[in-house]
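Good morning C.,

I know you're traveling, so I'll keep this short. The sequence:
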Amino acid sequence: MGFTPQIWRRIQVPETYTFWALHVAIQSVMDWGDVNVSLKDRIR
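The tokens, ready to paste straight into the viewer:
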């Protein structure tokens, strides 16, 4: 993407998490909410 400095986030989830629970956790820590907008639509 070319952003400087690069931004990293690390989260820990139980190994028993379902794919859906992981999806929700990632959206939560990234503060994305439940939206489905591609990056190309956000950069103009």
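Safe travels,
E.
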